[in-house]
Amino acid sequence: MNHLSVIVPLYNENEAVVNKLIENLKIYLTKITNNWKIILVDDGSTNNCWDVILKASDADINISGIKLSKNFGQHCAIKAGIDNTKSEFTIVIDGDMQDDPKYIEELYSNAKQGHDVVYCERSQRKDFLQIFFSKIFYFLFNFLSKNKLNQKIANFCIFNQKILNQLKNEKLTHMSFFASIKGLGAKEKLIKTIRNNRLPGSTPTYSFSNRVKLAKNTIVSFSDRLIYFSIASGIVFFIISIIATIYLITKKLYLDPSAPVIGWTSLSTIILFSFGLTNFSIGIIGLYINSIHNIVKQQNPYFVEKKTNLD
User: Fold this and answer.
1) Given a cut of 70, is residue 167 above it in pLDDT?
2) What's the CA gap between 210 and 213, in Å, rounded?
3) Is residue 264 scored above 80 in pLDDT?
4) CA-closest candidate to residue 305, choices 18, 15, 43
5) Measured between alpha carbons, how far is 228 from 143 in angstroms, rounded to an integer?
6) pTM of structure
7) Helix (H) or strand (E) holding 6
8) Cα–Cα distance between 62 and 176 in angstroms, integer?
9) Which of 44, 190, 267, 308 would bridge with 70, disulfide CB 3.0–4.6 Å?
10) SS3 for 260?
């Protein structure tokens, strides 16, 4: 078992970026312990990223590699690294060097003080669109979930062996790394960090569609309030329909029997709205059923094609 392991998800990073990352990680890991390991996870890259990993692992036995069969997404790549880690302390860091390895010593120091997990609270992003969509996601998730997420926290963190073993037991097919840890109720701490600019030759991990997919999977996997929202909406409209029916019957029979029957436009609108709400509710339930179905059939969130320097 290693004392300290670092999991790095990679997607289409070029050789210069990977080598720079490894060089910086080694500097700070060797200050802590000689019993360390770097696990580089190639998340279905279309360039020569895997060849770069093989070259690095051939040069240093402490560097391991995992190649996934296709692009499963960053969080699934992290899960693959977690499942292949045997370590007292585990660090997760992105591969684009935006997270500075110099904070590893501070993370480790706080973890040694007895915290289960120590997060890096990053400085604010400068990309307006990322900030905007990120705020929407975190607002929705925090509104719908009991576990509140901090918008300024990403993947860069350290956790102990207890958390590692719990994450290995996660059966969710739509893996969300950060939300999975928050769901454990671990003893946690934050440290302040400043993010670097993305290095040339590194690839943005998420497109807009990937962000939407991750948001949907995270909310469905870690919150059941959408179902209760659907139930509550149904009850409210049922009560409104009963009241409206009683009022219309009473008006026709007792208040104004000679009044002509009016309101077909509003009635059609209500019917169409009700059908839309019904289909929306069925869709929500379908998402949960699909998630349950994937768990029951024990579908892995990733498939490993190759490994190097791993037992």
Assistant:
1) yes
2) 5
3) no
4) 43
5) 13
6) 0.74
7) strand 2-10
8) 27
9) 44
10) coil
